[in-house]
Structure to design on (340 residues):
């Protein structure tokens, strides 16, 4: 069991990142409402590819929960039945959770693949939890941590559903993102605890403290970023073109933009300290690359009116940055424990 545990935990981590990427792509392409219902999609396990499949069809066999679009409204089959020649109200209930009734196959399939990846990541987390029982004698905490990850994944799935029901309320999207960071953090703790080839950092209290501060700054910057994104969502939903999305930004945007200088400066200092004192924190190189591309994508969004893909890149890089920094903190923390 132990042999497969680390592999399974790593696969789960990669899948969680893929889900974050897919979620960001869903938003970029505006596919969030591609499936109006949840967990099924238009009442199907495999969604339709053609609008025709969603129109009322005489003599067609409908199953309970199946959805059709009629007069720009969604209707849900009450029971299994075979349709007569006419649309009969008694067979259908109006879908009332929202009034979004558009079918766009690309949106539907982008959202559907996002959900499939979510399900795969969930399964990987459950498998990891089951395998964690191999550690029940010596490292019981792995069982608890793997279980918390499963609970958080279920919470994310539930939140995904409420996000659909509330037509993508920005507040819920932000919670969704912060919960994703928590999942990543716990999964990294799990992986780090069982890895045997961890390379120790050279102990340096000042470096470790600044490293922790830099992680906290990144988290603050991510929270500020989600606020900027909420503003962008509100403006873009009015149908305004990209050029107007940040024409009158909130003060939080300016704080977010300037804050990145602080984040960059503190990490550049850590990088400098690491090279000067040979502390073995080689992952700082990745932190610097990720930060550079993060800032470039932010600049591109603001000064070049959100070129295609930059929103997705910005969010995915932010979560990768968090992951690498969190891992570095784990390395410094365990090395401190060894010294005590
Ligand atoms: C340390 C560097 C940075 C980090 C970690 C960071 C992180 C984030 C995060 C996590 C979001 C929320 C994404 C979402 O919820 O979809 C965001 C949004 C945003 N950030 Fe940054 N950011 C950084 C630097 C910058 C810079 C330098 C700029 C501009 C000059 C910028 C402009 C924006 C904009 C315009 C949004 C809204 C994006 C959207 O609507 O999808 N960011 N940022």
């Amino acid at each position: 069991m132990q042999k497969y545990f680390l592999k399974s935990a790593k696969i789960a981590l990669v899948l969680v990142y893929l889900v974050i990427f897919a979620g960001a792509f869903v938003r970029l392409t505006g596919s969030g409402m591609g499936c109006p219902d949840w967990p099924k999609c238009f009442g199907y396990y495999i969604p339709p590819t053609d609008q025709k499949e969603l129109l009322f069809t005489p003599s067609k066999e409908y199953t309970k929960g199946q959805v059709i679009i009629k007069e720009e409204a969604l209707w849900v089959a009450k029971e299994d039945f075979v349709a007569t020649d006419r649309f009969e109200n008694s067979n259908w209930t109006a879908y009332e959770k929202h009034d979004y009734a558009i079918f766009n196959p690309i949106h539907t399939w982008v959202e559907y693949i996002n959900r499939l990846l979510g399900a795969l990541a969930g399964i990987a987390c459950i498998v990891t939890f089951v395998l964690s029982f191999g550690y029940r004698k010596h490292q019981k905490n792995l069982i608890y941590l793997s279980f918390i990850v499963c609970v958080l994944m279920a919470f994310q799935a539930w939140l995904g559903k409420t996000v659909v029901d509330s037509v993508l309320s920005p507040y819920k999207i932000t919670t969704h993102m912060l919960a994703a960071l928590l999942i990543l953090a716990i999964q990294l703790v799990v992986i780090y605890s069982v890895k045997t080839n961890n390379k120790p950092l050279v102990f340096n209290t000042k470096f470790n403290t600044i490293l922790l501060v830099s992680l906290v700054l990144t988290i603050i910057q991510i929270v500020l970023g989600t606020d900027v994104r909420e503003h962008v969502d509100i403006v873009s939903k009015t149908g305004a073109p990209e050029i107007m999305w940040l024409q009158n930004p909130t003060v939080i945007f300016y704080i977010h933009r300037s804050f990145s200088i602080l984040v960059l400066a503190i990490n550049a200092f850590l990088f400098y300290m690491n090279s000067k004192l040979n502390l073995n924190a080689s992952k700082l190189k990745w932190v610097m690359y990720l930060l550079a591309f993060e800032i470039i994508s932010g600049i591109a969004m603001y000064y070049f009116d959100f070129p295609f893909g930059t929103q997705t890149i910005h969010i995915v890089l932010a979560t990768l940055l968090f992951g690498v920094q969190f891992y570095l903190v784990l390395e410094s923390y365990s090395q401190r424990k060894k010294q005590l």
User: Anything to note?
Assistant: Strands lie at 61-62, 67-70, 73-77, 81-82, 92-94. The pocket of protoporphyrin IX containing FE is lined by residues 177, 218, 221-222, 225-226, 228-229, 232, 246, 256-257, 260, 263, 291, 294-295, 298-299, 301-302, 311, 314-315, 318, 321 (CB under 6 Å).
